């Protein structure tokens, strides 16, 4: 009987190695077959795109943009991925093909000095059913650097009142824009704007390359204006390379309006406004004795800036009320009383803080002061009644009896020189009338004579009546009306003065 012996360890190991090698060979064969069978479907060729517009090219002036593909793309798919932009806005374009290249141009045609961008972005299919992810872009300005339509300089209006200016010079009141090409005026009118809104007038100079813009009235003070230009064309059809805008404050005034001083003023020529400033008047509630002006003086109000004239006139008040007129001399305004200030009268002047300067900035703080006139009343120093032989019959009588004369000279001496304009009014101011009895006739004035100093006047009267038994009463009266007898300094009499005398 045969016995089966156990295989040795070496024999088992050999058998396992043979099986492993067989499996490797089999798998290698399978992979080879797969590789060889699919070799015709794998292609590592890249899709290259080039253009007649190079990278980083600023200007381009050919009739169309051409794109060259290393592999012919599916035209329908590519059209959906391609865009043409004008100033960042997509526009309609025309695409034509020649083999694997195409040309692109706007349906409206290229516009000089306008920014364009051609781009392809997305997954593209080629004619042989391959797919490529494409991201391609070219940007340019159509034309050349010689065609560029530019805003080359800007001059904005500026008046800084903090620098001491009191008015806006005309040369600083305009916005000035300078271009390198003539502007299409109609297009500028439509595409230029200023905010906040203000009525403007425009002047076109230097073959329409310079535009001067001014307000119909004036720029508002301390107001910021913003101007802008969009889509502007030149006269020959070029578009402005860039939109332009800026903000400016034409008139800046941060100085507070203040009343600097108040003075008594003597006006020598009202027509040409010639005047002399005299004593200062304190802007406070001083006692009137500390503020005094002459009767014929005006008042000069001086400010640190030019004042709006109507504003001042409406905001000034004087108590008691005084009629008068106003005159302006730059930053000084004068009040000219219609007639002389009243003697021994206290006046209070009130200046409202609502007064504005010419830029519309208010003063804010009220101001006031009081004063009295420095003058005294005009007085009659002496009255002398003389006969024809210049014999003094009486002097400064209240009531006296005189007799035996047919001509009477009334000699009146005043405390000050009488204004030459008022010398002729003495006939109206001085009257001699018969008082009693009623049948008495009033004496007639025959002559008036003034002394060289205009302080003394002599009036000659005739036609007196006498009686041995009865008293005839006459009265010499001097009227105190300020419109009649006035001194050179404007003084007038406080009360009427009279003398009564009796003839017998």
Fold and architecture overview:
This protein has 4 domains: 49-144, Immunoglobulin-like, CATH 2.60.40; 151-252, Sandwich (Immunoglobulin-like), CATH 2.60.40.1220; 259-373, Immunoglobulin-like (Sandwich); 380-503, Immunoglobulin-like, CATH 2.60.40. A 5-stranded mixed beta sheet has the order 2-9-8-4-5. The chain has a 5-stranded antiparallel beta sheet with strand order 20-19-22-25-24, covered by helices on one side. It is 11% helix and 41% strand. With 504 residues, the chain is mainly beta. Residues 1-6 and 35-41 have low confidence and may be disordered. The radius of gyration is 55 Å and the shape is rod-shaped. The termini are far apart. A hairpin with a 2-residue loop joins strand 24 (324-329) and strand 25. The chain contains 5 helices and 36 strands.
List keywords for this structure.
five-stranded antiparallel β-sheet; Immunoglobulin-like; rod-shaped; mainly beta; 4 domains; 5 helices; 504 residues; five-stranded mixed β-sheet; disordered N terminus
């Amino acid at each position: 009987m045969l016995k089966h012996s156990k295989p040795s360890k070496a024999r088992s190991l050999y058998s396992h190695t043979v099986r492993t090698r067989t499996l490797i060979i089999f798998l290698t064969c399978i992979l080879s077959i797969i590789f060889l069978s699919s070799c015709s479907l794998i292609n590592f060729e890249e899709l290259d795109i080039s253009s007649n517009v190079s990278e980083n090219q600023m200007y381009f002036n050919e009739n169309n943009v051409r794109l060259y593909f290393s592999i012919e793309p599916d035209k329908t798919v590519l059209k959906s991925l391609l865009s043409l932009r004008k100033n960042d806005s997509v526009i309609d374009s025309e695409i034509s093909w020649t083999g694997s290249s195409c040309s692109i141009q706007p349906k409206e045609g290229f516009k000089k000095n306008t920014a364009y961008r051609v781009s392809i972005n997305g997954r593209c299919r080629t004619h042989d059913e391959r797919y490529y992810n494409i991201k391609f872009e070219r940007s340019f300005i159509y034309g050349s650097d010689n065609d560029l339509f530019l805003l080359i300089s800007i001059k904005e209006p500026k008046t800084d009142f903090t620098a001491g200016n009191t008015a806006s010079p005309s040369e600083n009141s305009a916005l000035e824009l300078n271009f390198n090409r003539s502007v299409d005026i109609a297009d500028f009118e439509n595409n230029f704007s200023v905010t906040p809104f203000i009525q403007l007038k425009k002047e076109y100079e230097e073959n329409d390359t310079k535009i001067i813009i001014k307000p119909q009235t004036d720029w508002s003070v301390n107001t910021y204006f913003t101007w802008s230009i969009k889509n502007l064309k030149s006269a020959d059809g070029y578009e402005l390379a860039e939109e332009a805008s800026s903000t400016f404050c034409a008139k800046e005034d941060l100085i507070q309006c203040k009343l600097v001083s108040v003075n008594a003023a003597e006006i020598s020529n009202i027509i040409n406004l010639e005047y002399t400033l005299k004593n200062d008047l304190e802007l406070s509630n001083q006692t009137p004795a500390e503020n005094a002006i002459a009767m014929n003086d005006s008042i000069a109000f001086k400010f640190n800036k030019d004042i709006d004239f109507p504003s001042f006139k409406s905001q000034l008040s004087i108590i008691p009320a005084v009629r008068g007129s106003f005159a302006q001399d730059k930053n000084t305004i004068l009040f000219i009383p219609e007639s002389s200030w009243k003697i021994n009268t206290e006046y209070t002047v009130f200046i409202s803080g609502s007064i504005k300067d010419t830029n519309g900035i208010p003063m804010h703080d009220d101001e006031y002061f009081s004063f009295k006139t420095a003058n005294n009343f005009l007085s009659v120093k002496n009255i002398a009644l003389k006969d024809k032989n210049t014999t003094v019959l009486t002097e400064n009588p209240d009531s006296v009896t005189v007799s035996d004369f047919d001509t009477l000279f009334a000699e009146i001496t005043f405390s000050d020189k009488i204004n030459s304009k008022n010398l002729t009014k003495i006939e109206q101011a001085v009257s001699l009338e018969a008082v009693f009895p009623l049948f008495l006739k009033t004496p007639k004035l025959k002559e008036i004579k003034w002394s060289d100093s205009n302080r003394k006047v002599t009036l000659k009267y005739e036609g007196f009546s006498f009686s041995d038994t009865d008293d005839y009463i006459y009265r010499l009266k001097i009227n105190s009306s300020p419109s009649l007898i006035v001194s050179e300094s404007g003084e007038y009499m406080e009360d009427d003065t009279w003398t009564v005398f009796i003839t017998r």
